[in-house]
Amino acid sequence: MAHGLRNLMDTNRLVRVLEAHTPLCGLIAQAAEFKSATVTRKFDAVWSSSLSDSAIRGKPDIEVVDHSSRLLSLHELMDVCSLPVIYDCDTGGNHLQLRSTVRSLERAGVSATIVEDKGGLKQNSLKGNMPGQLQLPIEDFCAKLQSAKTGQRNSDFMVIARIESLVLGNGMQDALTRARAYLRAGADGVMIHSHHQDPIEVLEFSKEFRRSGEKAPLVAVPTTYNAVNEETLFQAGVNVIIYANHLLRSSHKAMKQAASSILQYGRAAECEELCTPVGDILRCFDT
């Protein structure tokens, strides 16, 4: 599985990844397909999101749910979904904790993990530059990456460095400097993050990153800048796009509306349009 994802990322094509926070989400991601006369689109991998894993447990996204608990859920996901899994590792803790987590992920059959270069109190990056969020010095994060890569046993497993420079207001040059340093330290790719609705800074980073001739995988997560299309990101140099929380958010909205409708009308008829027919749910598990 890890070998397959690495091969995908090394090809000259876009890799699409969809968040899956339950085994049912994994089945949905695996079965989803769009076909027209000229194109067929499917998801290539699934994303194990720390935001989603925290939210479904009713917890804040501040690394309060430990990796051991999340790994138990991953086993259930991978039992029914054959797509490669990319794991959101948050900060990964200190270098020894990160090394241990990488080994656990390898044993579980996960294909890659993404580790962010923050320190201090972890807050979700989509909040922007919140008090208490710090970016580790470059040399410190490089040491964490080196520890993780030294500890892994499967050469196909990928450790991808997530750069928070644009979120924390540290600028484009800092982001590019970090990208080059992290790759030299052994990272298998980089993810550039932004919380702005305009994709201009992500596109600028991607073009500058590729202009130097860098071939490593480049990951983007267009959650806030969702109006940009895949082709624009791909032409700028992004080759991995993660739709990081869309199954969580769409289900959350539908569940809230269904609960309110039942209370409002004193029956379930009015919320049926929000619900998948029971027969369709049962057919998900037909063998």
TrEMBL record:
Domain of life: Bacteria
Any GO MF annotation of the entry: phosphoenolpyruvate mutase activity
Keywords, sorted A to Z: Isomerase, Pyruvate
Enzyme class: isomerase
Family according to the record: Belongs to the isocitrate lyase/PEP mutase superfamily. PEP mutase family.
Pfam families, per the entry: PEP_mutase
PANTHER family: PHOSPHOENOLPYRUVATE CARBOXYLASE (PTHR42905), PHOSPHOENOLPYRUVATE PHOSPHOMUTASE (PTHR42905:SF7)
Keyword DNA repair: no
Stretch forming the signal peptide: none
Name assigned to this protein: phosphoenolpyruvate mutase
Keyword Isomerase: yes
EC number annotated for this UniProt entry: 5.4.2.9
